[in-house]
Amino acid sequence: MKINERDLLRKEYRAKREQLSEEERRKKSGVIIKKLTSLLVYHEARIILTYIEYGSEVRTSDWVEFALSEGEKRIFCPKVTSDSDNDKGDYRTAEMEFFEITTMKQLTEGYRGISEPESRNSQLFSKEFAEQNRVLMVIPGLVFDPKGGRLGYGGGFYDHYRKRSYLSAITTVALAFDCQIYKEVPFSDNDIKTDMLITETNAYTWGG
Q1: Which candidate, 173, 183, 190, 179, places its Cα nearest to that of 146?
Q2: Which of 122, 134, 144, 208 is buried most, with the most CB atoms less than 10 Å from its CB?
């Protein structure tokens, strides 16, 4: 497949996901999160790297808020860092980092309106955290297949971030609705497969 066909898949499967009603997304997300939190790798993890839902993505905010209230795991959320301190920001060579939150109030509107941590007073997830703790990364996306293939939004932030050598031992779990599953996602040299994929009806495992 050519790159433009990847973009067509993104458009098609975003539309499929957005056809779900808010109530459907809420219920299906609850089922998906229940499966996630029942995994052994989840219970063993001391640190969770996770997105906060944007638009019609699988909801994570309720679970994150509950996990924070329990206090058993440290939660880090992604932030896309701009190359400018002005209000608009310059994201042409931006990168993604994960920062710790201890309350949902530490999230603010960031890149493309996504809820992100306020980084100035937050702990950055670093190599030392990865080497000294069991870590689980929870990943969003637009299109997935049953063999670990994933299409994100086209920015390459997660694939680029996961190429850091100290993240190689971290288990990655993607969350998606059944309507986001495609037979075989077109793969490029820059793509990295996830270790697991959880939907409301299935849990796929092929690594990690």
Answers
A1: 183
A2: 144
**4-25 pLDDT tens trace:** 889 999 999 999 999 999 999 9
Interatomic CA distance for residues 64 and 100, integer angstroms: 12
Q: Are 74 and 47 in contact (CB under 8 A)?
A: yes
- Distances in Å between the Cα of 127 and the Cα atoms of 117, 132, 138, 170, 191 are 19, 9, 18, 11, 22
Q: Which residue has the higher pLDDT, 69 or 3?
A: 69
Which among 48, 72, 68, 7 is positioned nearest to 136, based on CA atoms?
48
- CA dist 160 and 46 (Å) reads 24
| Residue 188 DSSP SS3 | coil
Give CA–CA dist 29/58, Å, rounded.
Answer: 5
pLDDT above 50: residue 199: yes
Instruction: Report the alpha-carbon distance of residue 155 to residue 96 in Å, rounded.
Output: 10
Closest C-alpha to 77, from 35, 118, 33, 46: 118
What domains can you pick out in the chain, each with its CATH number? 3-205 (3.40.50.10420)
